[in-house]
């Protein structure tokens, strides 16, 4: 697969595809990395997903944006979509109700960056937002969930990999206008960073609003498991086939 570094809107990105020369994508997939991870952290998912569903290869363009901010952690400055409380970063957060109700500092800037990327991607590929899947891991899943609920047009789907609930009241109100948008959600029962029960609250919020959410719980920590990738490949294939 070809890999190109470029800038889309306000964000630096790695773009990966195996689309034949002269052809355009039929579906685009934007995946945002987690807090503290290098911008290229999720890039290996593109060939893995195509390996699981080869039909994706000649038709899907994968876009992996870099978080626009930096946050201090253990004496280092690491990539971040928005600022997280130390309790969350250290796996010591206990008041998940309070965290779910909060609007993290820097979220508006991250949202603007992702929205600018989507506008540029749509223009470059001639794909409407309804042919773009959003998703990410951990903090990247949070920002893409926020964006998916705010766009004027619903995206093709949303992949929430080990994400959690924030902006609860606003997400609840906006989710009611996203009835029918397909969602794939995965989370480890032994996640020591973002609690499993908090992910269940996000699942309930979305399903109660009428979104079809496939929740994949697994016996593991804060990670992406192989069986989750298998379901994700199937999810993307279904989005590709649906017109």
3D architecture notes:
- By secondary structure, this protein is an alpha/beta fold.
- Helix content is 35%, strand content 24%.
- The protein contains eight helices and ten strands.
- It has helices spanning 45-52, 86-89, 96-101, 107-125, 139-150, 168-175, 196-208, 226-241; strands spanning 2-8, 11-17, 27-32, 60-65, 69-73, 76-80, 132-137, 157-161, 183-188, 213-218.
- The chain has an eight-stranded mixed β-sheet with strand order 1-2-4-3-7-8-9-10, sandwiched between helices.
- A hairpin with a 2-residue loop joins strand 5 (69-73) and strand 6.
- Helix 4 (107-125) packs across helix 5 (139-150).
List its salient traits.
243 residues; alpha/beta; eight-stranded mixed sheet; two-stranded antiparallel sheet; 8 helices; 35% helix; 24% strand
Report how far the terminal alpha carbons are from each other.
25 Å
What is the strand arrangement across the widest sheet? 1-2-4-3-7-8-9-10
Compute the average pLDDT.
93
Helix-strand pattern, N to C?
Answer: EEEHEEEHHHEHEHEHEH
The biggest sheet amounts to: 8 strands, mixed
The value of Rg in angstroms is 17 Å
In terms of DSSP E residues, the strand content is 15-25%
- Estimated helix fraction: 25-40%
Poorly predicted sequence stretches spanning 5 or more consecutive residues: none
Q: What structural class do you assign from the helix and strand content?
A: alpha/beta
Shape: globular
Strands, count: 10
Number of helices: 8
């Amino acid at each position: 697969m070809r890999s190109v570094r470029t800038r889309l809107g306000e964000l630096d990105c790695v773009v990966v595809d195996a689309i034949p020369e002269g052809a355009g994508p039929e579906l685009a997939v934007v995946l945002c990395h987690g807090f503290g991870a290098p911008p290229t952290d999720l890039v290996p998912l593109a060939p893995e997903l195509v390996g699981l569903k080869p039909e994706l290869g000649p038709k899907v363009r994968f876009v992996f944006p870099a978080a626009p901010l930096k946050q201090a952690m253990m004496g280092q400055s690491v990539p971040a979509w928005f600022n997280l409380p130390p309790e969350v970063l250290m796996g010591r957060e206990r008041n998940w109700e309070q965290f779910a109700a909060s609007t993290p500092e820097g979220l508006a800037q991250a949202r603007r960056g992702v929205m600018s990327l989507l506008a540029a991607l749509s223009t470059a590929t001639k794909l409407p937002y309804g042919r773009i899947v959003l998703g990410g891991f951990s903090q990247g899943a949070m920002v893409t969930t926020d964006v998916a609920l705010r766009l004027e047009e619903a995206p093709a789907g949303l992949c929430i990999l080990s994400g959690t609930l924030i902006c609860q009241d606003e997400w609840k109100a906006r989710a009611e206008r996203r009835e029918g948008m397909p969602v794939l959600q995965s989370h480890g029962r032994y996640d020591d960073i973002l609690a499993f029960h908090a992910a269940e609250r996000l699942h309930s919020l979305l399903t109660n609003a009428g979104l079809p959410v496939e929740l994949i719980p697994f016996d593991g920590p804060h990670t992406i498991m192989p069986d989750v990738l298998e379901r994700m490949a199937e999810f993307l294939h279904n989005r590709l086939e649906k017109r």
